[in-house]
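As a warm-up, study this chain.
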Amino acid sequence: METPQFMPVGTLASVKALDPDDLHRLGASMILANAYHLRLRPGDDLVRTMGGLHRFMQWDGPILTDSGGFQVFSLEGLRRIEESGVEFRSHIDGSLQQFTPESVMRIERNLGADVIMQFDHVVPGQSPHDLAQVAMERSLRWLDRCKVEFDRLQLEDPTAPTPVQALFPIVQGGIHADLRQASARGIRNAGDWVGYGIGGLSVGEAKPDMYAMLDVVDLELPEDRPRYLMGVGFPEDLVEGVARGVDLFDCVAPTRMGRTGAFFTTTGRRSIKNAQWRSDPSPLDETCGCVACARFSKAYIRHLFIAEEILGLRLLSLHNVHFLVALMRDARAAIQDGSFAGWSRDWLARYHSRTTSS
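Now compare it with the structure written out below.
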């Protein structure tokens, strides 16, 4: 697949409101699913018996699975962290569960994604230096354990849905430059990796802090391997991330926003529920080539939302995902013809030219 690329998120083996044909038509190459959620429902063993995620969800492109680290550590009050792993209560039925670096590798093996992520320790974006250091150093120790189990499974489990997988480590360190440097260097010393994840950003810190950490990491990671910025998916962050060497992005924002009436345009974010669109015959975005923009007006889609018709949620979700996939396609073209610096500057100026509340 070509990069930079936005990966639509199919947390539970489904990109909400969209099917695989939709994703192919809008140009998606790779999608993401979540090991935490699929472990709890329907279970990674069941997914394996169904032939793995590709067959289960009928997606024939690449798949990446997040390890569930972010979800587990967000269960404040429902989990206990130890060096061995994390014990937590399921948010579904309250059952006691445990994730360790080894068990997560087995879960991701059963799910059968092409790229799998290490189990890491995630902390809030504004965490102080001492807490961020504890999490970063533990993530490095857990990476070593993930790699041992990953290598074992590659050799001893040849009947897995995807026999050959790629394991990505995750750079942690909060908003502290020295910790990000130490994490990246520790990861590089731990092995020769196919690609690298950058985690623990877009979790509460200010955007300038996130961009500053990407600048730090950009200098520390190999230029010939893909970098995946985890959980980041607003248009301006994608453009800023590409400028700092990021290749892959994912986020639930485009479909989550679509379900609440928000949509992306080249001049900022808008809400379809606003009265100004009641009789507007224009598409959601004049420059967009998605099915929603090609066929339907703002007035019609607003009517669907006001009438609580499910089609409205689907059309905005499709538009928002298409917008990000197309944005990264344009970024690739600008990189290839040597115009990215000017293109990104002009794009960001236009995007920020109007308020995002209309």
